[in-house]
Records
---
Amino acid sequence: MGRNVRSLLCVVALLFLVVGCGDKEAPMYQGVQYPATSTVIPSFQADQVPVSCSVFAHLLAWQPAGVNGQTIARTIEQEARQRGADMVLLGGTREAEEDKGLEFVYYGPANEYKCRDKWCGWKFGYADWARQGKWVSFGFKEWGNSDATYATPLVIQAAFLKCQK
């Protein structure tokens, strides 16, 4: 009986050790669930977002090394459409300290809010954002542009918005 108990304890301890060594997954999206949309409009300035739009997701979008502006636009728009966004508000872009491949890490908000009334800037995910590398020029001219290429992995600030028709 004692040997069986010790064996069981060893197996349980080994199981915890193996599970604890696995990669941590990015926070899954747990916000408002909207039906998928067919188009997403990009915006680079919060004051240009229509008054009817509410922010329902804050995120950092990691892009792998070697992407171009067309790939970045396609992957972020695809994620936004899947979440039901009508618009995506884009912030700063930095070189990522590590190449995580394509990854979207969500940071809330706890409750949806009107962008024009309550937008407080790019404060979410600051601990992750502050660890990244140099600033990268990525804006309206680079969005969707296949000639704008990036040799290093990137991380991009974004917010998804739902707009009343």
Note: Residues 2 and 67 are 58 Å apart (CA to CA).
---
Amino acid sequence: MINHHIMAMKASVRTLLLIGILATAGAGILTLGMGMDTPWAPWEKQSEIMFPPVLFTAASFVAAVAFCAGTVVLHTFLATLTNDPDKWWRVSGVMFLVIYGTYSFGSGTFEAAIMLNLLHLTVGIPALTLIPRSLGKKSISF
């Protein structure tokens, strides 16, 4: 089973890096270019300190690649459970975007929530379309 996950990761490396670049560009445009608020800094629990924009932009690359790598594993796992893993993977991805989009409104300001939702769409839509294509039928056959 682990071999299938490794092969899926190898097949999707370029796609994961592309999505990470899109996340970095999106975060940079929204926070540095347009000056939108970032969410609250996770290391400051009882204050209203916002995530530094440059750090948020850099962290967006790492977070997008790591999260999408996890979704590659989920897709590969779904391939063992169903004959149509793309469909179930996309359904779970859309559900995540809706649930997290709602949850984002507790991340600080209304502007930060809008920025996070735009950023997640910048990552989510390419991920929902490109990751299944990068895996193809041959890389997930069991």
Note: Confidence is low (pLDDT under 50) at residues 138-142.
---
Amino acid sequence: MLYFASIDGSQDNNKNALKLHKHNNIVLNAEDKFGQSRGDRSPPENLTQLGERAIRLLNDDNLEVSKVRPFFWSLVEAYVDRFQRYPFDASKALFNHLELNAYPEETVLQLVEQLESQFEKSHGRPLRKSTQLLSRNDSLDNEISALRASLKYAVMVAENSESK
């Protein structure tokens, strides 16, 4: 049995300290072996190496989406903070998203509502007239057309009666 010397010189036979010490060595050895088995002994030297390593890790069959999303979101946020733009075409990404989900009507309507709301918040005016106003304008246009037609008819009748 191993004994540890305490600060005052007396012997302390604390077995937990020994177990903890052995436990730490086992953990360190496991980390070393894990690092060697991955082949990633040194950190990537550039973005190309980092990308290759990320792709290799993404192809792991046991990888969960819930673990990947925060990683990518933090990368996108860092990119936007640094360059003040997205690292991809946002419009194309939106259309790709819709294609992946077969353009469900509910999703498209929600996106349209969100876009219109955001436009109004940013610009202080609606993007387009509401459907109610458009239908009201259509009915007004029909009434004006009917009035014009009746006025033309009235003018024609008046001209015919004057010429007789």
Note: Residues 1-37 have pLDDT under 50 and may be disordered.
